[in-house]
Specification:
The protein has 371 residues and is α/β, with parallel strands linked by helices. 39% of the residues lie in helices and 14% in strands. It has twelve helices and 14 strands. It has helices spanning 8-29, 36-49, 60-69, 87-95, 114-120, 140-149, 202-212, 233-242, 246-264, 293-302, 332-338, 352-366, and strands at residues 53-57, 78-81, 99-102, 125-128, 153-157, 165-166, 169-170, 177-181, 195-199, 216-218, 221-222, 279-280, 286-289, 341-344. Strands 1-9-8-5-4-2-3 form a seven-stranded mixed beta sheet, with helices on both faces. Helix 5 runs parallel beside helix 6 (140-149) and helix 10 (293-302) crosses helix 12 (352-366). The longest helix is centred in the N-terminal third of the chain and has 22 residues, at 8-29. It starts with 7 loop residues before the first helix and ends in a 5-residue tail after the last helix. The relative contact order is 0.16. The structure holds pyridoxal-5'-phosphate. Pyridoxal-5'-phosphate (PLP) binds at residues 59-61, 85-86, 88-89, 131, 157, 159-160, 181, 183, 193, 195.
Amino acid sequence: MNVPFVDLRSQYRELRPAIDAAVLSVLESGSFVLGKALTSFEEHFAAHVGVRHCVGTSSGTDALELAIRACDLRPGDEVITTPNTFIATAAAATAAGATVRFVESDSRTYTMDPAKLEQAIGPRSRIVLPVHLYGQPCDIASITAVARKHGLLVIEDCAQAHGAEFEGRKVGTFGVLSCYSFYPGKNLGAYGDGGAICTDDDDLAERVRLLRNHGSRQKYRHEVVGYCRRLDDVQAAVLDSKLPHLDRWNAQRRRVAAVYDALLAPVPDLVVPFVRPNAAHVFHLYVVQIPNRDEVKAGMAADGIETGIHYPIPLHEQPAYKHLQHEPSDFPIAHEQAGRLLSLPMFPEITDDQIAYVVESLTRRLLGRKC
Ligand SMILES: *Cc1c(COP(=O)(O)O)cnc(C)c1O
């Protein structure tokens, strides 16, 4: 048996008539940039998140960069984020001209530890950029409280958490701005790159709208020096066709996680994902911790099972951030965990047989028995 890490084709097959029709109608309309399909998706996605504004962007990374730029930082101002995330979270801050500062992860959820946030805040800190990692909300209420106390803005990185909830409220509604990615493998994925910024703030919405489109509201009049970072209409049409299914897919992901949990919880030396009792996790990834990770991963690959590592090198140890002069031990939890994390195949359509096969291979390889 072969088990892929994700399976993007089965979702397309399921929705083929609707997606094909939506794409063709954009092709027929001749309106490919800032057209009706984009407006329609933006309205629907804003409603799904529960905010007034959604601004489609060319990627999640661009969403983050524009969101940070909209906050008007000065050189030397800091964005505080987490070392255990995809590089784009920090790289967007760097691209926006900010200095990056890291805060240690919480050992159970792998997300930013609000207790350690306070001591990371310095005189130049302006923005806190926590990540709802693997589909699990970070402790956004505590993070927002600390940020407010120190006069910092919160921007949420929701790239892995479309539809996740914290205390009954959707992620993406806590910060002044929130950023989404529609990279194909995300819980809501386009057929190419895409992203969005959500906000309830009319002024910030207008600013990011300007920034994504050459600083322009009116053709050939440019209010500010902007960028070319729009979500195109073909991608918006694909996303609009898929959005009505997002909640169901997230529920399927939660079911898959529950099956994994039941089978893996009794396995010694293996830590299953901790789920906050006050959160709705959407399991973009199902990540376990094991001691002999690299061996097990190679063994599972030999059994035909694709797994992932999110992420093998924490950001404070990345060559790209060597100028920050961190030691691996500066963030010992993030450093330790990077060597132990393993992401198992996770997608709504995975079958119980596939899950059982993954679990059998994983436990056999973990206990080091020969097959
Ligand atoms: C995917 C991702 C991004 C970047 O999104 P792109 O659309 O690939 O640019 C940013 N942050 C996190 C946490 C991500 O997982």
